[in-house]
Amino acid sequence: MRKILLPSACISIAWTAFAADATDPVREVMAITERNWSNTDGEWVYLFDQEPLGRLFSRQFQAAYAEASKRPAYETDDGSPGDPFGYDVVTASQDGCPLEDVVVTTGSQQQGITPVKVTFKLWRCLDQPELRESVNEVHFDVMDEDGRFVIHDIHRIGPEDEDSVLAEMKQHVTETY
Question: Is pTM, for the whole model, over 0.85?
Answer without folding.
Answer: no
